[in-house]
Amino acid sequence: MSILIGVSPKARTWIVAGVLVLLSILIGREVFLRLIAPAPPLNFDEAAHSLPGYYMLRDILALDLRALWGDFHIQTLWPPGFSLLQAPFLGILGRSDESARLFAYIMLVATALMACAIAYQINPELAALAGLASGLIALSAPGWLFVSSWAMQETPVAFVVFVAFWCFLRALQTRRMIWFFLTGCALYFAFLTKFNYAAFAIAAVGMVDLGERLRLIRAKNNERVQARPFSILNSQFSILALYAPLVAGIVFWFFGGTDIVPTEVKWRDFRFFVTNEDSGYPFWSSENLLFYVRTTLYWLMPSPLLAGASLLGAAWAVTRIRHPGVTLLAVFFALGFALATMHQLKADRYITPLFPSLWLLTGLGFAELVKAIRDWRLAIVHHDLHSPLPTPQSQISNLPFFVSILALFAVASWSWLTWLPRLQPVWAGHLADDLRAASHQIVRWQQPDRPVLIIGTFGELSPPLFEWRLRPLPAFANMPHPIQYDAPPVEGPNDIARVRRWLDENPGAQVTLIRVDEGSPLYQTDDMRNKNEWRQRIVRAFGEVRGYRLANEVVYPNSGLMIQYYLPG
Questions:
Q1: N or C: which end of the chain has fewer CB within 10 A?
Q2: What is the tens place of the pLDDT at every residue in 293-306?
Q3: Could you say which DSSP state residue 503 is in?
Q4: What is the widest separation between alpha-carbon atoms in the chain?
Q5: Is residue 331 situated within a structural domain?
């Protein structure tokens, strides 16, 4: 089977990878111009992920292992895998909101390339077409492109999971202990990147690993294969190599670094991650059970029709290709989708790291279907003995593949022409402009020779954002004065009393107020308004604090936003 005459399967796969890289540059430009550049500052979660990445980069460049140890263990609710991956990119691209988000898109591209590598492990003959199909879906799925414009965990964890899967398939193929060990290490790194997707990946690898071991034992018992008493795959050593680094790493995570964070805090945050907020949907309601089905049909994929075709292609791969890699991808997707549906917290982006596995199955199924059509056409020609002018076999062999490639690019082009012009950040236009301007103005006001208190923070102007903006500045990197937000951590009967006490304990402090009007478009839901109400009460009550004068003020009327800067006097 040959798409390009005289080209080996490995070379074809490399050519496809090169094509995907070139396409990713073109699509990346659109993602940057439409989603990243016009977006508001990093939101709370994005800044909370990216700030430790900067700290780790700083620690590594300074060869400060003690600081690196602390910055590794201090991240308990969100483990440090994301930061470790992001740090070198911040070193190359520089520290900015744009570079932090561009890292997520680079991880999307890396995941698409890893899909080519996994496809080659499953079936070298199908790898090129399968990798091209899955890569084009990934680069044209609007929801996946949207997620890749945020400095969040979804695309990095998808990449790490695919690295683990590739190592595992290499282990099954070569039966070398080193690949089992690397699989365990990669699964541990997935755990450090996002707990739940690591659990899905560990379960999928464990099930396939057990199935392969049982299959080989049955085959040996039936004398279909020669007995290999020292076979690594059947030995306890390969089991140890696979699971020991994973278990040791998890134990180290929870029980190591207690000089930085106590074990009970790590357990508490882990439990919160697993059983955190409830989206409020009754379990048996259609809103809950069909939430991610709707996400797939109407947000993640370009159209419901293509979502259905993708699922059919994946089903074709599962039924026609007998390989543990196909089983691995299918178990990971099915298990993750089912458990995500059962979990009480729902959000569109939470499900997205599962879909590169589905799309790779779709690509494999598509490539297998094209191969079946090619074989069927060849069979017709070979049995047509009465044809006076038989068609050359090379034309018969390659025509289905050329047509399939044209079809893939036609569908991807339709998606790009339809969806790319519609992509925009959650906050766009004057809202994003005002948020960016306000964040920069607040940073410009701060003086490094005074304690800092910023009151009224919310999701888009959050404490992690101001830490991200202030701490890397040389004047603030090692400033002796504290930086605090909203109600400082001191004793007091109420929030404004705590503010007064903190100001008394930190004479000369500067105070910045962020006021958000009740009718501000920044409050898209009542829940957002309710969560921010206690901070706005402190803002309104600050007028009761004596000894401070208004030094500066900026109003953003279109956004219902006002920022004020106070100094003692």
A1: C
A2: 999 999 999 999 99
A3: H
A4: 103
A5: yes
